[in-house]
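Students often ask why we bother encoding 3D structure as a string. The short answer is that it lets us treat folding as translation between two languages. Here is a chain of 119 residues written in the first language.
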Amino acid sequence: MRISIVIDCLDPAALIPFWEAALDYRHVDSPPGYAALVARGGEASPTLLLQQVPEHKVGKNRVHLDVHPPDPRERVTRLEALGATRLGDWDEHLVEAAGVRWLVLQDPEGNELCVVEHV
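And here it is in the second language, the structure alphabet:
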């Protein structure tokens, strides 16, 4: 079974560099009004579809992505250079219980994602 994750946005093409860096994905051909990104190695990972919509994002996302890069701090720096904004500091409340902390970011259009660090 295939899974796609769809993010509504005003300008799919403008968000391609951000989401390529966030997920280590690559852009593939897609129909007008969409930008499709897939895993670089061809592994069975969900496709990310950036879907053009006419309205701006309002409120908090009900669903968001958590990314677990090998070097979370470097990934945050790279995403901030591509227009990400931090929504607070590293959340430490699961360090003792689960060995993780995360930082909530927004892409350039305000869609949330978390960068997770395993400690």
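Translate back mentally: The two ends are 33 Å apart (CA to CA). Keep this in mind for the problem set.
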